[in-house]
Amino acid sequence: MTALAAAVPRLPYALVLTLLAALVLAAATAGIAAGSVPLAAGEVWGILAHRAVPALVDPTWPPVRETIVLDVRAPRVLLCGVAGAALSVCGMALQALVRNPLADPMLLGVSSGASVGAVLVLVLNLTVFGAFSLPLAAFIGALGALTLVYVLARSGGRMTTVRLILAGVATAEVLSAIAGYLIVTSGDPRKTESAMRWMLGGFGGTSWDLVPIPAAAVLLGTVALLGVSRPLDLLLAGEEAAASLGLNVHRFRACLFVLVALMVGAVVAVSGAIGFVGLMLPHIVRLLTGAGHRRALPAAALLGAAFLIAADLAARTVIAPEEIPVGILTALAGGPFFLWLMRRKAAS
Amino acid sequence: MTPGHLRAERVGVAVADRDLVRDAVLDLTPGEVVALTGPNGAGKSTLLRTFYRARRPTSGRVLLDGEDIWRMSGRRLARRLAAVVQEPPGEFELSGYEVVAMGRSPYKKAFQGDDDGDRRIIMDALDALGVTALAQAPFDRLSGGEKQRVLIARALAQQTGTLVLDEPTNHLDLRHQLDVLRLVRGLGVTAVIALHDLNLAAAFCDRICVMHAGQVVADGPPAQVLTPALLAEVYEVTADVHAHPRTGVPQISVHPDQEGPS
């Protein structure tokens, strides 16, 4: 018997959520305030409050600042929050889906699949579905990649970590190579720039019209995942146990594939592929709330939003006026984290 | 928790032209506790899988109270039949409580949380297996025996009239083996238990069903099934069968120094 299997001391759940929400607000305020024209936090909130309820605050700021806040920085910060929440929540769902804590939309090739879909639409100028062409193509690419990796990694009903990671990494590499090739051979005059955006991820030039589709997809997707938090828990127990507890594992897994691909596709279509967010944050969240999805998913969404807003803030301020693709920063933080997780797993 | 009537009708499971299980017939009257035994690879686990919907039989039917379990929903079955299965350990830090709480999911709709009634059932199940102290402990760091008891508690939390247990005494020390079998016996539910230990099977089960090479080759009360001839044929060992000095149930003594009768 293990005499010591002591309870992990945890903060009360309500407190965790409150702290994370405060973190999101702080990151968003900083994200809107910082830039070539620095603003005070009070001014940021004043402008936002004035827009919401004009009578609330008297405008004491020059109109140009209002434009900066409302038309330039607010949509970018909001989109970062949406993308961060999506990647984090999808990472958590994928980890349950493949029952492996090393899963991540980027590592499993899902993001690269979405990139290929999106780039194809841009290069071939496909606009059959209007504003939805891009996210739809990204979704199809994401779903295709996820299915491919899943099939490759599974043999005889079992899926080992090694096979999963190898299949994911190989698929991701091939797909990003395809996306890169498509960009370079296209007539795009700003090839290098757009290649960087799709391969490394970035939020430069975000305007309001990019926000609604991913925001809606992520909000609905997260609510849907919360609705299936019990089945997600059951997946952690293993396939057979889940079946014995009444879950139709195959059908549930297929639905989850589509849901994750939808969310990742919607996000990658506007931001490009950003790695490691979906790997790191679910792991940190589980330390705070435990692995039960009902409690972990909302926390993962909040932490993901705060993290990516902060990462994007760093990406555009560290070497201002130049911008670093945000994916470089998340990889710098995420790579070592991944290695640490792998070694820790090997040791236990 | 009315005990169920579980019946396998000529169940067969074939994989790529190989019969893992062939024409298996098993009938458990309500409240009966039956041991399923046989050498490694005899098809015990495969047959049990068809009972808890982890593997669809390629021929035959599995009936619970006369209803084909493959024609009802998984949730409906999970409210009437619970399973303790062998599975590789996970890598996520669920607490003992959270693992047992999974047993309530067949009763829950989307977005529905556990209420006080559920919490009481979960705590009672933990208590019945003597693992209340492990409620807040991370499941993955428990010992094999502790895990096993938590998983049995999860099956109890499902509050079903029928239990399917695949090697529930695995990893358990002598005392906990007896505790678990005594507990299952005392529940008054119908139970089918895969067991390697024939002496335990004889002591705790109404019947012993022996599988060999995918087929049921013997099924009956322990005294009828456990004979030197059967042990020689199925397990290829020489053994004496004698009555337990206190309880009178048949017990086996295997002869250690032999190659097996050939």
Topology:
The complex is a heterodimer of chains A (348) and B (262).
Chain A: H1 13-33, H2 41-52, H3 63-97, H4 110-124, H5 133-153, E1 154-155, E2 158-159, H6 161-184, H7 191-200, H8 212-227, H9 229-236, H10 239-244, H11 249-271, H12 277-289, H13 293-317, H14 326-347
Antiparallel strand pairs in A: 1-2
Helix pairs in contact in A: 1-2, 1-3, 1-13, 3-8, 3-11, 3-12, 3-13, 4-5, 4-6, 4-11, 5-6, 5-11, 6-7, 8-11, 8-13, 12-13
Chain B: E1 6-15, E2 18-28, E3 33-37, H1 44-49, E4 59-64, E5 67-68, H2 74-78, E6 81-84, H3 96-101, H4 116-128, H5 144-157, E7 162-166, H6 174-187, E8 190-194, H7 198-204, E9 207-212, E10 215-220, H8 222-225, H9 228-235, E11 239-243, E12 250-254
Parallel strand pairs in B: 3-8, 3-9, 6-7, 7-8
Antiparallel strand pairs in B: 1-2, 1-4, 4-5, 9-10, 11-12
Helix pairs in contact in B: 4-5
Helix vs. strand class of chain A: mainly alpha
Number of helices of chain A: 14
Number of beta-strand segments of chain B: 12
Q: What is the CATH architecture descriptor of chain A?
A: Orthogonal Bundle
Q: How do the helices and strands follow one another from N- to C-terminus of chain A?
A: HHHHHEEHHHHHHHHH
Supply the CATH class of chain A: Mainly Alpha
